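Hey team,

Sharing the Deoxyribodipyrimidine photo-lyase run so nobody has to redo it. Sequence (436 residues) first:
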Amino acid sequence: MKTLEKVNVFWFRRDLRLDDNVGLYHALNSHLPVLPIFIFDTEILNKLPKKDARVSFIHHTLQSLRNTLQQDYQSSLAMYNGKPIDVYKQLVNTYDIETVFTNHDYEPYARTRDTEISEFLSSNAIAFKTYKDQVIFEKDDVVKKDGNPYVVYTPYSRMWKETFKTIDFKIYDSESLLRHTISDSDLPNLSLSDIGFEESSQEIKPYNVSPKRIQDYEATRNFPAMDNTSRLGPHLRFGTVSIRKMMQKAMAEENDTFMKELIWREFFMQILWHFPHTKNQSFKAKYDRIQWRNNAEEFKKWCDGQTGYPLVDAGMRQLNETGFMHNRVRMLVGSFLCKHLLIDWRWGEAYFAEKLHDYDMSSNVGNWQWVAGSGVDAAPYFRIFNPTSQILKFDKQLAYIKKWVPDFQELTYPQPMVDHKTARERCLETYKSALN
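Structure output:
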């Protein structure tokens, strides 16, 4: 009988980089050669369109990691396609595995998946070790004195900063240990077509965290025509950058606004962790009593950027064409869907989940519940953005609108599908009757 090679496994997930990767660092510091793997999880992929830009991005990133490991370390990265539990059943028959290392994943599906994997590995006398990597603080790291989670951002942010002063903040030098990966440069590889996908025409843009971009962040971030955001979203989502290195950048430039955006991300992550039901139920339960109109034709007009409100339409057309929408505009289009059209926030959340390159369940759910008024935000439900006055505030020269809605002054451009004043009154009445 052939003796199986004794290895430890590092499982890449939302951490697609070789540098400052906590779980990878600990794996490479173990006493066995490390087999790096990635699993294209069919439980997730089967729900996605076949030209999904995020899948293309993940695939390109993995090929880059493979190339680095092959060229510099005579190693590689093994790629698999299927349900993770089935892949691990295959792996235990291929290798003598002592420990599987990976990083924490906090979403409800991931937690269920990891429990199943942990139990299977344990039944085969294999350890399963996971680490905090994609956040500075997680779970119960930042909570109130009574141990309960914060549900309002400002006090959470304040405590986050106080706690940050007390920790031993370090960068994990995982890239210096890559010689400890397995000596096999011919590990299983997969093409996009092997996993049932095609190359997307949309590109996930590189991020920009130059000193100037961070310094100008407060002054420019609210104006969609300037396109001066960092574009960090997808890179933090898939872990092609380290949150610790991004926090270092914010500290180096002493930019509180940029740092607060990183803290918002962790706030929503801990909300989803403590309240996993919020992925499809309102945080404030009484908001599930709202009688949504849920008109499918109106929803399609919103999706297609044909509402007759130029700033709303610009955002939706930008999203459909590029997979990106400026955050200021996201708030407006979300508010318009929920408040003007009285369409359930879950419809909008699902559409963004399909289209956004930087889709992250915790932030997406948190922000959609914010605009619907059903989330953790303390502001009352009668905050309703005026889609016309928002233009004067954030696109006064109409540069953003002209780029994405060049037909806005043409006779062919649709009339506003609903009158703002009428819609506002209808919304207030509907919410009031549901909540009182």
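The two ends are 72 Å apart (CA to CA).

Ping me if you want the raw files.
A.
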